[in-house]
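in:
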């Protein structure tokens, strides 16, 4: 792959510069168009650049091509992701080499301020795999060797920001402000490469754990490069991670499938302080002043082949002896730090990895903490043996570490937990075969910081451990006016932490007499960040995967921003990156609300909300003031008084600030009210002006019962009848979220209402009707008046006429509304079907990959066991031959006894080898069975979502 990338890159770069040099500068626009067209035809991505400049002056006498604002944006699943955003890309070519024509010498490639996103989805699909696949046709004649050669002298990247986000491995790497240079002769078969890289902040997270966090990184190396065989041997190297300096040696090669390597590394110094610099909290606080003692030994190796089927063998060793650290300005130290840890895999089979932390001990202000851990067969069936025991006096933290200004803490946390056994025992519910006991307790814990407006106090918290679950036996918390108590259990916690797809399940019962979220949010801006507008915006709250959690909630009062709720009760579930509300009831806006629905963050960039509401007797004006959605859906509510009840179901996408994307909103509902009073509405005022009826400025609508739908950015109100005094009205139409309106209002107005100026309006309506229809309409007891409302909420347009004259226009508007609804429904159905098919297809693909990966892993387990078994037999045969040889030297009787002993050695070896292979086959079957179960669950969950 790497060879192919180098080859493609060379061809693309060469083609660009040959064209740029032989075609006059006047044709620069055509070159740009041609390059974009070619990129469009060969890439599954959108490539664009804003400007191309060609110069012989910038690096005279060399020729320079400069691309400005180069972007590559993905398609399909990656259509919202920018793979590359490069403000400036310069390529400097030796113009003399162009004149010679046989060897084009690229002096430099300079890339400034690139922002790169490398992304892998959970199904293994990568966003950089953008080259369209083409079938290679066999050539009729052998191709002639090209006389083109390209010599790249130097590559330079300035101030890069790079993100590698791999959902399939649950890994994320963030590189901030990277500067990189690489020089050498890339046209030669053998060359000496010089590379230098410095990174301001390097963060590496795997499995939710930051192994490096904002680490300052420097890498300098001289490499002997065999470009013909793509093998690179390290001649000199320097790798600095903060203050830890490492030395590395060995080689790395690019194979046809995968990578080969034999690398060794070790710490250059034996000073504990170098290792301490990797702890972000310590390194960021006056690290140069920290006093330390103790020795460090850190080394490791990686040897073998990495590809889709195998990993290289590796070993890592860390020893810290008799270490301590202390800030001179503080009264106490962290002492007696002793660590002995190693990770080893001699075969390259993932399941052969062994992790041993035989000792981890430290004392904080005299309070000891000890940890020990051993892990075996981490893939097929993790076997654990470990414990943690210690006392944390939080008041002592400020004695050994300089806390931020305004931060205080006190109280004690005690831990004494032991684990021993295999994960399979838990999965088979054989809890007697797994030992898990102990507890973690917190007493009188108090914490305060400038990030929190109030002190948080945890009077008592108890976590009890057992093989089956973790029991939260007690939890009482207070802060400001808020309180919270909780009890519950977490099941399957070992599988969740140890398995890639382990699901954490649990139940929790919570209660609170008052929960005011302002007690947890610091709304006072600091002097350094104060602005005129201190309104905070909400970001997407991502629901974690592999969580199946149920919470029974009971809150007396809950306050968040301008939302105030009382008597809250119901069930909240968290599953499959979705938060579900089941029968959640609360009092709000002087009425009662019942909610069912879900909030989905499978795609955290596009959260989805789907809810059913049953709202009873809420105050209209309070609802308008409280909810932005009501202001969008029913702006008339601002000028309305009364109470309404509504049953509503809807779904919508949310933006990055958790606001509804109104054009994506779909749903329907009904609304009822005994009476609503509406006044000072621009539309009604204009109708009153046109009909010369003052009473239409203030309407008292009785016995309202209407149905509505919203789609495509509009709220459609189906025809409904209302009565205000003696005037009967039928209303239908829409209000757009962009404030456009379109309504028909058919009034049946008693003749007696047309007095004064209104009588003149009536006469004009009758005359206009008779003129257009040729009929002799005369006013009866009731006058049917049709009103068509258009324009916007703030600037409506009004058309009036007698109903029989306006009927055509009224029907046209109704049909338009009806057709738009039908069209939108068809679009929604098609979209849902497509999403359902994609969901099932993706689940099937992921399931197939799970099983295929498991089969490969199982084969490797058996293969490694067979190799180990053969080795046992070979060693036994060698030992047996030695026994027989030594026995024969001593005589016939000794030789006979030696032969019996040799046979016994071989027989024992055969038994041991057989057990190794049998155990491996059992482990491999466990791997396959687990994968099949996970695959079935993936498909079942997908189909359950589709059915739902």
């Amino acid at each position: 792959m790497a060879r192919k990338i180098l080859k493609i890159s060379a061809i693309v770069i060469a083609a660009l510069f040959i064209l740029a040099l032989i075609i006059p500068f006047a044709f620069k626009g055509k070159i740009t168009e041609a390059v974009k067209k070619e990129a469009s035809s060969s890439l599954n991505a959108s490539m664009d650049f804003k400007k191309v400049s060609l110069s012989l002056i910038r690096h005279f006498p060399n020729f320079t091509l400069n691309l400005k604002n180069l972007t590559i944006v993905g398609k399909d699943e990656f259509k919202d992701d920018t793979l590359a955003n490069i403000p400036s890309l310069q390529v400097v070519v030796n113009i003399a080499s162009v004149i010679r024509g046989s060897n084009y010498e690229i002096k430099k490639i300079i890339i400034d301020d690139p922002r790169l996103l490398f992304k892998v989805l959970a199904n293994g699909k990568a966003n950089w795999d953008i080259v369209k696949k083409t079938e290679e046709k066999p050539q009729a004649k052998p191709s002639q060797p090209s006389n083109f050669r390209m010599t790249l002298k130097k590559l330079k990247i300035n101030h890069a920001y790079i993100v590698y986000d791999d959902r399939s491995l649950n890994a994320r790497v963030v590189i901030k402000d990277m500067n990189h240079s690489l020089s050498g002769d890339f046209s030669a078969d053998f060359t000496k490469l010089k590379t230098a890289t410095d990174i301001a902040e390097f963060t590496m997270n795997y499995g939710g754990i930051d192994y490096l966090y904002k680490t300052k990184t420097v890498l300098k190396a001289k490499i002997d490069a065999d470009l013909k065989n793509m093998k690179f041997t390290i001649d000199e190297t320097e790798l600095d991670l903060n203050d830890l300096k490492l030395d590395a040696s060995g080689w790395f090669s690019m194979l046809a499938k995968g990578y080969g390597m034999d690398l060794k590394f070790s710490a250059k110094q034996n000073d504990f302080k170098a290792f301490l610099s990797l702890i972000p909290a310590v390194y960021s606080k006056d690290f140069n002043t920290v006093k330390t003692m103790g020795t460090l030994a850190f080394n490791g190796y990686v040897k073998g082949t990495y590809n889709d089927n195998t990993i290289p063998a590796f070993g890592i060793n860390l020893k810290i002896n008799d270490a301590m650290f202390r800030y001179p300005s503080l009264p106490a130290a962290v002492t007696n730090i002793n660590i002995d840890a190693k990770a080893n895999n001699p075969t390259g089979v993932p399941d052969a990895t062994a992790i041993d932390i035989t000792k981890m001990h430290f004392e904080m202000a005299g309070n000891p903490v000890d940890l020990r851990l051993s892990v075996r067969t981490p893939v097929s069936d993790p076997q654990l043996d470990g414990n943690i025991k210690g006392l944390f006096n939080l008041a002592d933290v400020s004695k050994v570490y300089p806390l931020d200004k305004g931060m205080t803490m006190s109280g004690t946390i005690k831990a004494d937990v032991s684990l021993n056994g295999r994960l399979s025992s838990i999965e088979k519910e054989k809890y007697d075969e797994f030992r898990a006991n102990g507890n973690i307790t917190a007493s009188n814990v108090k914490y305060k910081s400038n990030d929190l407006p109030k002190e948080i106090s945890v009077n008592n918290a108890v976590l009890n451990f057992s093989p089956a679950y973790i029991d939260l036996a007690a939890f009482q918390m207070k802060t400001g006016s808020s309180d919270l108590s909780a009890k519950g259990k977490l099941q399957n916690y070992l599988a969740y932490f140890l398995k890639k797809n382990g699901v954490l399940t649990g139940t929790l019962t919570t209660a609170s007499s008052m929960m005011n979220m302002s007690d947890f949010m610091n709304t006072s801006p600091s002097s350094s960040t104060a602005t005129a507008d201190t309104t905070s915006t909400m970001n997407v709250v991502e629901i974690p995967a592999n969580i199946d959690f149920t919470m029974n909630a009971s809150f007396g009062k809950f306050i968040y921003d301008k939302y105030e709720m009382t008597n809250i009760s119901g069930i909240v579930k968290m599953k499959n990156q979705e938060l579900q509300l089941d029968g959640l009831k609360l009092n709000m806006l002087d009425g009662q609300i019942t909610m069912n629905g879900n909030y989905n963050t499978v795609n955290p960039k596009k959260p989805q909300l789907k809810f059913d509401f049953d709202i009873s007797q809420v105050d209209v004006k309070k609802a308008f003031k409280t909810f932005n959605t009501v202001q969008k859906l029913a702006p008339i509510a601002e000028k309305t008084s009364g109470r309404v009840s509504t049953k509503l179901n809807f779904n919508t996408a949310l933006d990055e600030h958790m606001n509804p994307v109104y054009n994506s909103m779909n749903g329907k509902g009904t609304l009822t009210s005994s009476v609503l009073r509406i006044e000072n509405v621009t539309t009604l005022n204009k109708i009153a002006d046109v009909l010369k009826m003052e009473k239409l400025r203030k309407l008292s609508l009785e016995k309202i019962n209407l149905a509505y739908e919203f789609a495509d950015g509009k709220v459609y109100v189906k025809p409904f009848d209302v009565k205000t005094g003696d005037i009967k009205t039928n209303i239908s139409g829409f209000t757009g979220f962009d404030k456009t309106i379109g309504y028909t209002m058919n009034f049946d107005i008693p003749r007696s209402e047309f007095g004064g100026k209104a009588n003149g309006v009536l006469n004009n309506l009758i005359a206009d009707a008779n003129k257009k229809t040729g009929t002799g309409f005369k006013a009866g007891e009731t006058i049917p008046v049709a009103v068509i409302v258009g324009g916007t909420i703030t600037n409506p347009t009004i058309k009036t006429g007698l109903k029989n004259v306006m009927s055509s226009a009224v029907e046209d508007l109704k049909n338009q509304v009806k057709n738009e609804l039908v069209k939108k429904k068809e679009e929604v159905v098609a979209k849902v079907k497509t999403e359902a098919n994609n969901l099932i297809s993706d689940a099937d693909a992921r399931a197939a990959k799970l099983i295929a990966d498991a089969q490969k892993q199982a084969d490797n387990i058996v293969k490694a066991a067979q190799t180990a078994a053969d080795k046992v037999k070979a060693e036994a045969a060698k030992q047996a031959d030695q026994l027989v040889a030594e026995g024969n030297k001593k005589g016939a009787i000794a030789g006979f006894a030696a032969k019996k002993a040799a046979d016994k050695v071989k027989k024992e070896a055969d038994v041991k080898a057989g057990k190794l292979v049998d155990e491996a086959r059992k482990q491999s079957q466990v791997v396959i069975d687990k994968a099949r179960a996970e695959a079935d669950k993936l498909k079942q969950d997908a189909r359950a979502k589709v059915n739902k």
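note: The chain is about 25% helix and 45% strand.
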